[in-house]
Amino acid sequence: MYYNQTLPPAPMMNSHTLMNNRPTIEVTGEGTVSAAPDKAVVELGVIMENLSLSAAQKKNAEAMAKVIDALLKLSIPQENIQTFDYRIDMEYNYEEGKQTFRGYKVTHLLQVTINKIDQTGIVIDTAVNNGANSVSNIQFTVAHPEAYYNQALALAVKNGERKALTIASTLGVTLNKFPGKVEEMSPSAVPSPYQAKLFAQAAATPIQPGELKIAASVRSQYFYY
């Protein structure tokens, strides 16, 4: 007597399943490239306080107009001078638990892009000498950061490969030459900030841009046998 028995189908195995079942080594590779900055972005402006709001606004506007005119005379292009913060705040004094109105504070800050980085100190001094009383931030950048980032990215891939080879050698296994997966991780910010609070000075303000460190990192997965 014969019995006709239907067997369950064999599980489907695709290439993704096969790859997931293979032993892997996962590493993070990092790369850093140094670059000389060729552009500066300076945040500067005028802060005025007065009991009268209209007076504070008027004085701020007059001072800011003088600052902008001085920057334009330094051949800073109009499009490189941009308002990024304008606000009005009410100021109070606090004494013995009591709040006393002190007046209004009008803040007008500009973001100035300097294409000739050696003029950074001159730009700051010129703005301060013409009425700016706040220099809150200086960022040094490069005009084409993607070229340096790509170099750092290549170094990160090589760094990950060396790490994987070291692990494989320690385990006594053989590493596949090419990774099964490479994932770019979030790049680090390029600008290098220089914090400053500057006011009018007799001598030129010395600004040292130094070098930028542009970093990249990847996560790589290698198969081994």
Automatic annotation (TrEMBL):
UniProt superkingdom: Bacteria
One protein family per Pfam: SIMPL
InterPro entries per UniProt: 26kDa_periplasmic_antigen, SIMPL/DUF541
Membrane-traversing stretches: none
UniProt xrefs under PANTHER family: PERIPLASMIC IMMUNOGENIC PROTEIN (PTHR34387:SF1), SLR1258 PROTEIN (PTHR34387)
Protein's recorded name: SIMPL domain-containing protein
UniProt organism field: Paenibacillus radicis (ex Xue et al. 2023)
